[in-house]
Amino acid sequence: QVQLVESGGGLVQAGGSLRLSCAASGRTFGQYSMGWFRQPPGKEREFVTAISWSSTTTYYADSVKGRFSISRDNAKNIVYLQMNSLTPEDTALYYCAQGRWALASMDDHEYTNWGQGTQVTVSS
Fold first, then answer.
1. CB under 8 Å to 20, separation ≥6 — which residues?
2. Do strands 46-51 and 58-60 pair parallel, antiparallel, or not at all (unpaired)?
3. Residue 53 contacts by C-beta under 8 Å, 6 or more apart in sequence?
4. Which three-class secondary structure state does DSSP give residue 23?
5. Is 71:82 a contact under the CB 8 Å cutoff?
């Protein structure tokens, strides 16, 4: 099983930027997609973005399109989430997740391993 650890969260002012990282360790063999999800306080978890193994395909939620960017470095087993033009509505606990195969998906049922999350708080 792969262990995922998110980092890079913190407190930032509206309009600012943050870059989250997700490091994978353990049994990281094979090809798999990766995704980012978030859970705002008092709300359910929602899809943010996903990327295929080869980085050929990416998906973004409408709420973050044009502001967030997902990327990955397979040699380092790290996935990144660059977040720009942050607003208070982006405040949430952000999770990374490993997909069950190489193709990206927006469906959380297609993800088999999850990190513990990193908190992002955006002040107005």
1. 6, 7, 8, 9, 36, 80, 81, 83, 94, 96, 118, 120
2. antiparallel
3. 31, 32, 33, 74, 102, 103
4. strand
5. yes
User: What DSSP assignment string belongs to 60-83?
Assistant: E-TTTTTTEEEEEETTTTEEEEEE
The helix or strand, by DSSP H or E, that contains position 25, with its residue range, turns out to be strand 18-26
**Tens of pLDDT along 34-89?**
999 999 999 999 999 999 999 999 999 999 999 999 999 999 999 999 999 999 99
| Separation between Cα atoms, residue 99 and residue 32, nearest integer Å | 6
pLDDT digits (tens, 9 = 90+) for 85-122: 999 999 999 999 999 999 999 999 999 999 999 999 99
